[in-house]
């Protein structure tokens, strides 16, 4: 699959506001500042599609994008970053929870974790929300340009152990090198069938 068209559709907070296009949908979830919006830009090949920020808490609504007029991508807000106030968690958690339980066409969730961090309660909460709705999850380790190959292997082990899935595998991404684009596009094509 080649992505040749990517457009913003709309932002939503409540299920009544979600777009009603009959397309298979893919969501990008993860802690604030992990690189969700940047990765969507990289995957769609449009660096200005989604706003990216140096401060956490940039994405505050669920933002929907149409891809090739055949697929949808949802960029979710994140929380769980030290500088994001607890008030935001109170807004975002129910928003995300409602989304996962009200989106029949959601085919796969990409859960992003920073390759340099050991995931914690946020990621476990997301995995249980998603799998509780029988939706598959792919774990993507972001910002891989920040670590050497050696460090990457060590981090991978720690990340998988902390998520309680030691035998599983991870996908790697970097918006600096373009790593991960192929894997993500392949997963999207595989799961949209
Ligand atoms: N080095 C490096 N920096 C990255 C990468 N991906 C994202 N960043 C940087 O990380 C910061 C946060 O990126 P965003 O894409 O806004 O993160 P987000 O997860 O959408 O954040 P919120 O919308 O606040 O939840 C920005 O300064 C990005 O430039 C990457 O692969 N490598
Ligand atoms: Mg964002």
Describe the structure.
With 193 residues, this protein is α/β, with parallel strands linked by helices. It has a single domain (6-191), classed as Rossmann fold. 33% of the residues lie in helices and 21% in strands. It contains five helices and seven strands, in the order ββαββαβαβαβα. The protein has a seven-stranded mixed β-sheet, sandwiched between helices. The longest helix has 16 residues, at 86-101. It is globular. 38% of the residues are buried. The model has no long low-confidence stretch (mean pLDDT 91). The structure holds guanosine-5'-triphosphate and magnesium ion (MG). Guanosine-5'-triphosphate is lined by residues 30, 32-38, 52-54, 56-59, 77-78, 142-143, 145-146, 174-176.
SSE blueprint and pairings:
Layout: E1 6-12, E2 25-30, H1 36-44, E3 62-67, E4 71-75, H2 86-101, E5 106-114, H3 121-132, E6 137-142, H4 149-163, E7 171-172, H5 181-191
Parallel strand pairs: 2-4, 2-5, 5-6, 6-7
Antiparallel strand pairs: 1-3, 3-4
The structure holds guanosine-5'-triphosphate and magnesium ion (MG).
């Amino acid at each position: 699959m080649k992505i040749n068209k990517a457009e913003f559709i709309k932002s939503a907070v409540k299920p009544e506001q979600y777009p009603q296009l009959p397309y298979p949908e893919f969501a990008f979830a993860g802690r604030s500042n992990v690189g969700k919006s940047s990765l969507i830009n990289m995957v769609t090949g449009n660096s200005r599609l989604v706003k990216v920020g140096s401060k956490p808490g940039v994405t505050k609504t669920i933002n929907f994008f149409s891809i090739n007029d055949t697929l949808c991508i949802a960029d979710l807000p994140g929380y769980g970053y030290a500088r994001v106030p607890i008030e935001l968690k109170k807004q975002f958690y129910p928003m995300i929870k409602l989304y996962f339980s009200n989106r029949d066409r959601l085919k796969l969730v990409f859960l992003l974790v920073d390759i340099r961090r050991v995931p914690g309660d946020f990621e476990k909460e997301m995995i249980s929300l998603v799998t509780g709705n029988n939706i598959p999850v792919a774990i993507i380790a972001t910002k891989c340009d920040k670590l050497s190959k050696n460090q990457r292997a060590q981090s991978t082990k720690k990340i998988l152990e902390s998520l309680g899935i030691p035998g599983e595998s991870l996908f790697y991404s970097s918006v600096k090198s373009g790593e991960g684009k192929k894997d993500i596009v392949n997963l999207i094509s595989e799961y949209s069938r």
